[in-house]
Each structure stands twice: as structure tokens, then as C-alpha cells.
Specification:
By secondary structure, the chain is an alpha+beta fold. It contains 15 helices and ten strands.
Length: 408
């Protein structure tokens, strides 16, 4: 308590102000350094979470395919899969078809994925991603089956809800001598525009019923693969390994992280690099705190000499100046957290920062403040503040009392 009282007295100026100008500037350096760390780490965390959510919502936790053969009927395959991985919540068989779509004189290569309407919403989270229109895959028996179009693809082709679009599927045809392929064509009606969360999905994917996709590709009742939803995201890697091991070489199993391994590894590396680079702003602020304490030591030579004459130990004098620096650093760090939080809120509520989706995969700047990130920032900031106080604190504690009282 005595050390805190001394620190409180030392941090007041002769005019009664609690902080002098030098201390205020040192504190502002900490505020801006910590705020920059909070904002950037929150953006990186938000970017990672947004991409993960998009991948899991649209593709599920595990993708299961069969090499060169039609997939087994779901009523036979599902019990086998649940026996291998008891944590399976639901399965959604799907049909994957690649083709071409044309509208208003514009052409794009697309992927049509067809799902069973009775299972898709149990496995994937597509309904909350509807931008306009309504979630409708239809039955596949309609003259123009409903289809949901990615928002980027809809913008590119200029389509809107209610429009009819024709999907063309090139097929190998040995009987065609000139071009070597025939075409299959099917007309769909746009039921909804959907935001799938990633640029690659939004600019290529179209979703419809499995029956409609099978008719387009002429597959009969064959499915391409199964998308699997588990009880927890973190179980995907283990579940995928078990399925690959137990089902044998005829099957291919890939978890959501493996499919996007390069992307998420790049994000992890960027997180570390950005943190280290921006940490130098806090280091610079800590140098300001250290210089502030050196000035305080020089101005308090007389007081230090009196303390030492009265029997104050060297350790107690070190605590005096260390606490003074830690108070400045703590106030600056907490101020930085508050300022960083306000900036994150501003970024989250506005879209004033343009994000090119074709480069960064997302259409807006995502923000997510994680407790672990904030705790790491506070711990590192306070540790740097403490280290910056040691040199001036030991310098003051080493003062000779006679030297300090010589000019008083």
C-alpha cells in the first residue's frame, strides 16, 4: 500500500494534475498500439470464422465419394457410416454436375449441385443464407424446376428471382463426328438468390433438387457423394480418417479443413506475422514509458536519497518506479482495449472498407473479438511494460544518497 501511495504522489504534478504531459503521451502510445492489435487480430479472427462457417454451412463437415462406381443406396450406406462414426448427426446425398449457363448474352461455367429436399436442411445451413426469394429445391418433376443461384453468379448473369435460365451440359458423344460431343439442356426457374459465403461458391454454384440434377446429367437415380454433419466441428478430421480406413480404397473421404487446407494455414501464418509486426507499435510505446521513468528518476534524485537515508531498501525503490510504469502501461492497455472495441464495432456496423471478394473470398470485412486474443494482447502488453520499467527502476535504486543530496 505504501508503494502505491508513493506512486500516486509521484504521478501528480505540482499544479495538482494527475498526469504530466510526458506520462500522457506515453499512455497514448500504449492506447494506440493496443487498439491497433485489437482491431487487426479481431479482423483476422473474423475472417477465419466467416470462412469456416461458410465452408461448414455449404459443404458439411465430411465429404464422402466413391471411386469410379455409383454410390451405394443411402438406406444401405447410412447404417454402415453410423457404425463407423457414431457422432454423425445427419447425411445429405448430392449430385454434382458441371455445365454452362447463358443469360442475357452472358455465359458462365457453373456447378449444379442437387440435394434431396428431405435431408439437405438437416445437414447444411442454407436457408439463413437466402438473400432474396425463398428456399425451394422443388421435387424435380416440375416443367421448370426451381433453382437457387449464388449471389455473385446472379450479378454476373443479371438474373433475378422468377427468371428462367437454361443450363447446358456438354456430353461425350462418339456419334457426333464434327465436335465430338452432344449437349443436354434443361431450363430452370430462379427461386432464390443465395449468399454462400465464399467468392468461389457465390460465382459458380447453383442448387436444385437431386432429381432435377440427375435428369440434367442423365444419371438415373445415381448420387455423386454424401455430405456428412457431425456433432462437433473438431471431430471432422478423425471421422474422415476412420471412414477412409474402414471403407477401403473404393471410397474417398475428406474433412472440411482438408478441402481448404491451404487457405486456413495461410490465415494462421498471417495471424502470427501480423501480431508480431503490430507488436512493435506497443514496444515503441513501452520505450516512451521507459523514457518517462528515466525523467522521473532524474527529477526525484533528492526524494530517492531521502528514502534511502530513512532505510528504504533497493527492492522497495525498484517497486516504486516499476509500479509507476505499470500504472501508465495498464491504463494505456485498458484504454487501447476500449478504443479497439469501439473501432471493431464501427467496422462491423459499417461497410466503408471495400473488400475485393475475388482476392479475399468475402464480400465485407468481418470482425470477431475473441477472449483469447484480448487476453494475449493484455498479457504481452503488460509484460513489455514491466520489462521497460526495469532499467530506470534499477538506475534509481542504485543512486548514492550522498550524490542525491549534494545539490539540495
Amino acid at each position: 500500500m505504501f508503494e502505491l501511495w508513493v506512486v500516486w504522489r509521484y504521478m501528480r504534478t505540482r499544479k495538482g494534475q494527475f498526469f504530466n504531459l510526458v506520462s500522457v503521451l506515453a499512455m497514448l502510445g500504449m492506447v494506440f498500439g493496443v487498439a491497433a492489435l485489437v482491431v487487426v487480430m479481431s479482423v483476422v479472427s473474423g475472417f477465419e470464422s466467416t470462412l469456416k462457417e461458410a465452408v461448414v454451412d455449404v459443404t458439411g463437415h465430411v465429404l464422402l465419394l466413391k471411386r469410379g462406381e455409383p454410390l451405394d443406396p443411402l438406406d444401405k450406406l447410412e447404417p454402415k457410416l453410423r457404425k463407423i462414426v457414431p457422432q454423425i448427426l445427419s447425411l445429405a446425398p448430392f449430385v454434382h454436375v458441371e455445365g454452362i449457363v447463358a443469360n442475357n448474352g452472358k455465359i458462365a461455367s457453373i456447378v449444379v449441385e442437387g440435394f434431396d429436399p428431405s435431408t439437405v436442411e438437416k445437414t447444411l445451413r442454407l436457408s439463413p443464407r437466402i438473400v432474396s426469394g425463398h428456399f425451394d429445391l422443388g421435387t424435380g418433376l416440375e416443367t421448370e424446376p426451381p433453382i437457387m443461384v449464388g449471389i455473385g453468379l446472379a450479378e454476373k448473369l443479371g438474373v433475378k428471382v422468377g427468371d428462367s435460365i437454361a443450363v447446358v451440359l456438354p456430353k461425350n458423344a462418339a456419334t457426333v463426328k464434327v465436335l465430338g460431343f452432344a449437349t443436354r439442356l434443361k431450363t430452370f426457374k430462379v427461386a432464390a438468390i443465395i449468399d454462400l459465403g465464399m467468392y468461389e461458391y457465390d460465382t459458380r454454384f447453383m442448387l436444385t433438387s437431386a432429381k432435377a440434377a440427375q435428369d440434367l446429367a442423365g444419371l438415373g437415380n445415381i448420387y455423386t457423394g454424401v455430405r456428412i454433419k457431425l456433432t462437433q466441428d473438431k471431430l471432422a478430421r478423425e471421422a474422415s480418417f476412420k471412414l477412409s480406413t474402414e471403407l477401403g480404397l473404393n471410397y474417398v473421404s475428406r474433412d472440411w479443413l482438408e478441402v481448404n487446407h491451404n487457405l486456413f494455414e495461410a490465415i494462421k501464418l498471417e495471424r502470427v506475422v501480423i501480431f508480431v509486426i503490430l507488436l512493435f507499435m506497443t514496444v515503441a510505446a513501452c520505450f516512451n514509458i521507459s523514457s518517462t521513468l528515466f525523467v522521473s528518476v532524474l527529477r526525484r534524485y533528492g526524494d530517492i536519497s531521502v528514502f534511502k537515508t530513512l532505510g528504504a531498501s533497493r527492492g522497495r525503490l525498484v517497486r516504486f518506479f516499476s509500479l509507476q510504469g505499470l500504472v501508465i502501461g495498464a491504463l494505456g492497455s485498458f484504454g487501447g482495449l476500449i478504443l479497439g472495441g469501439l473501432l471493431c464495432l464501427f467496422v462491423a456496423k459499417t461497410n466503408f472498407i471495400y473488400v475485393p471478394a475475388e482476392i479475399y473470398h468475402v464480400r465485407h470485412l468481418p470482425v470477431e473479438m475473441r477472449i483469447a486474443d484480448l487476453a494475449l494482447i493484455m498479457v504481452v502488453s503488460m509484460l513489455l511494460c514491466f520489462l521497460s520499467t526495469l532499467a530506470p527502476a534499477f538506475r534509481g535504486a542504485a543512486l548514492n544518497p550522498v550524490e542525491g543530496l549534494k545539490y539540495d
